Amino acid sequence: MNSAPSDAPLHVGLFATCPVDLVRPSVGFATAKLLEQAGCRVSVPPQSCCGQVAFNNGDPDATRKLAWRIVQDFESFDYVVLPSGSCGGMIRLHYPALFRGDPRCERVERFCTKVYELTTFLAEIVDYRPAAPNGNLAQRTVTYHDSCAGLRELNIREQPRRLLKQCTGVEVTEMRDTDTCCGFGGTFCVKFPAVSNRMASDKVNNARDAGADLLLGGDLSCLLNIAGKIQRQQSENPLLPKVQVRHVAEVLAGDLDTPAIGEGANNP
Amino acid sequence: MPSARTAILSRIRQALNKPGATTDIDAAFAKLTQQASLPAQPPLSAATVEAFHRAAADNGAEVHRIETLEALPRWLAARAAELGQTPAVVVSPQFADTGLQWAPLETLERVRQASDWGLARGCAGIAETGTVVSASRDCPSGLLFLVQRLVVVLARADIVNYQEEVWERLRQRFNGRMPRTVNLITGPSRTADVEQQIQIGAHGPKWTDYVLVD
Amino acid sequence: MSAVQSPIPDKDFIYRAGDALADAQLQQALAKAGRGFVDKRSAAVARVPNFEAMRDRARAVRQKALRDLDIYLLHFEKKVTEAGGQVHWAETPAQMREIVLQLCAQQGATRATKGKSMVGEEVYLNEALEKAGITPFETDLGEYILQLAEEPPSHIVAPALHKTRAQIQDLFLHHHALGERDLGAVEAIVEEARQVIRDRFLSADVGITGANLLIAETGTVAIATNEGNGDLTATLPRAHIVTTTIDRVVPTWEDASAILRVLARSATGQPTTTYTSFFTGARGDTDQDGPEAFHVVLLDNRRSQLLGSEYEEMLHCIRCGACMNHCPVYQAVGGHTYDSVYPGPMGAVLTPLLRHRDGDYQLPNASTFCGRCESVCPVRIPLPDLMRKLRNQEQRETRLKGAGYWITKTFCALAAKPRLYRALTGIGTRLAAALGAGRGRFRRLPLLGGWTAHRDFPVPQGASFQSQWHRREQQKTTSKESQCPAPERQSSRASGRP
User: Fold this and answer.
1) Which of A156, B204, C152, C496 allows an S-S link to A2, with CB 3.0 to 4.6 Å?
2) Contact C332/A199, CB-based, under 8 Å?
3) Phi then psi dihedrals of residue C278, to 5 deg
4) What is the interface pTM, i.e. ipTM, of the complex?
5) Residue C433 is part of which domain span?
6) Minimal CA–CA distance to C152: which of C30, C14, C331, C335?
7) Does an interface of 3+ CB pairs under 8 Å exist between A and B?
8) pLDDT of A196-210, one tens digit each?
9) Closest to A190 (Cβ–Cβ): which among C18, C443, C451?
10) CATH class of B48-213
């Protein structure tokens, strides 16, 4: 547990990440709420993309441009928090490597040490423990998808489970092969659709086999993929048991009213 | 037109930023390997011989014990009777000057049929993996693989904890010039090439007996 | 086994993947194999407390070996020669084939037994032998099955992994003229292979094997097998030929142990293979048996060019197969989809580097960078990083960039201006939300056909997060007298544990 030296709250720069920013802002608001509840002051400077798509598709120069922009815009905060293991890993692990041999390297490395994925930040840096749980997940069978980058680049596994237990009392029902990729993989899912579809189907089947009616995760890109697959299967076979998909931030913040991922007001 | 050898070596040196060819290879090699690194070995589950016993059994070998080498022929005959077999036993030349008599078992100098047994004397045992070691100076390597049941006799004192200790022994015994073949054998042959199901008895022996002599 | 090339060379990875996903028998075989390998490795690793230390040691050995590769290769050559053997050097696959054929001709060979050698596959050796009137007899059960089926291997450790028991049974019934018998059980299949191949061991003129390791200290070739076929191939004929590559060498026997400890655990979940055999030179006066002639053929085929390059770590590979066993892409489509001797993650890196054929760049692209391969690699090769480097290389080499390139470029140019990005995406997301209002998901999307072919796409909730936040903050500023929550630039503030 780390406290600021004075009564001044930690000033956190919230980096929403593209999927949250563009497709599901409620995750961003949930993230801000959790950080404020933990006693942080939250700011959201103008932001865009961490550059992962350029990085993984052969354009390290474009990536560096975006990375440097982010370092400059966010380095003055005490911490930078992202509701994503994949973008978090991109910044923490890959940014320093991108600037190796570059005169800006030291500044980039210093910046990266204050970048955290949300559940790690809440569990390890501020030890977030709300006095009363934000939401009620009783009656739900909850399973958790570990995104590959979060798992392997940032060692995120136990933190969200611990937070869920602490904050909502829910014990995660583990599905089979939690550490196997869901098939998103950035441009992979559109370049190799058949293989991606197979991986997504396997993931969804695992969730159903575990008896889950709610699937959570810390990476919206994975969750969009999984939810999209669940809903396509559901529309083709309405008899399949229903599985809702949400970002863990929303659940921790108690936001269960917003339609789950892929659900519409008219189309749950 | 440089030979393939010259071309390959010169590309390697270039890639490694080496100024030129090394003249004294033995000296260069000795210098590079003078400092041995600490190996990363798994801890043994028990004392040496007990660990050997367990590991060998885990890998499908059967371990037996006799008090002296003289007891071997009796043990062998009893083993055959126990299994209801009358095998011909290919006996390694290692046993030639021991004076041991193998009757009533039929013995051969070379493998004749697939159902023959083989009898060899290992030069070492490795407790880490339940492995026996044989050198082609002592026993023909072919014998170890062409028989259906392989019996390896081993002195308890020759069992060491780890592979690396065997290497030291080999260096000392063979003075740097290794025999044509050194075999490390851990149990009977097997394959998993059909639906990943392990099947014992591939091309090498289907059964192995290790006989430890006190 | 004859031609190893894909029968339809212009079909690409995506096409072959589609076929593989629809192949019920292949899927059945892959499901069994995937589960088995993963569970066995995991159990083997759990049984030792210091597997991570073993990995570190193995990696250090590979690094050490490459750092002075010239010295170790020359010492190896010297020692082989002193032991009555010969070392031959081949720059290209063609040279290797030529050398092996010459060596066989020297022996007047017409029958050659073969131990499993991926290098032999890499240079299409069997085809060349057959053309020269020499019959190659594969002795590894998996390779033998493939020889009957006239198919290339689909895995570097279990080459016939893609075959079901029923398919193998059919092959044996068809090819072995042995009359009526029941090959329903695995035991029966293996017993039959044992009998058929035994004669071949005994009547071979030459034996051709690969090598797991070349030990520079004594000029020794180390081969690890479970079946014992490697030994029967290496020992019984009058000549033993080893087809291997320049990167297989390790300095000492202790270094070999470091590799062997992680090899079997990573490949098949065993602490050791049944047989680890060390072959030094030709039969000497004091040896009880062994071949009169011993030859090691060292192939380069671009490996010397990888040395000292950004891809050097790929040369650390010890060919355990763990990466492909754990790869979700490989598990879905199997090895033939890669159309290479080296499939899976290690093949996705090695194939374009060694071969540079059209379509090879698809392999490093067919990855989600999930990182599972790297996490199980016994010598810690950063496979996703190497695949990424290949994607960078591909971009540099491609003159006519595709639509994806330009879309990404445009997006990045916009993203480099966050305020403009915020303004434009704020509008765009509101439009998209309006289009999908109430529905929650799109069933079809322009430009994202690959996604929507199989999945729905969730509709954006409304205006982008940052545009909403920005508007909220602006309202706070205009409606209250209190300070605007702009980020402070206090560099002296302690920031807690970084």
Assistant:
1) C496
2) yes
3) -120, 115
4) 0.97
5) 405-476
6) C335
7) no
8) 999 999 999 999 999
9) C451
10) alpha beta
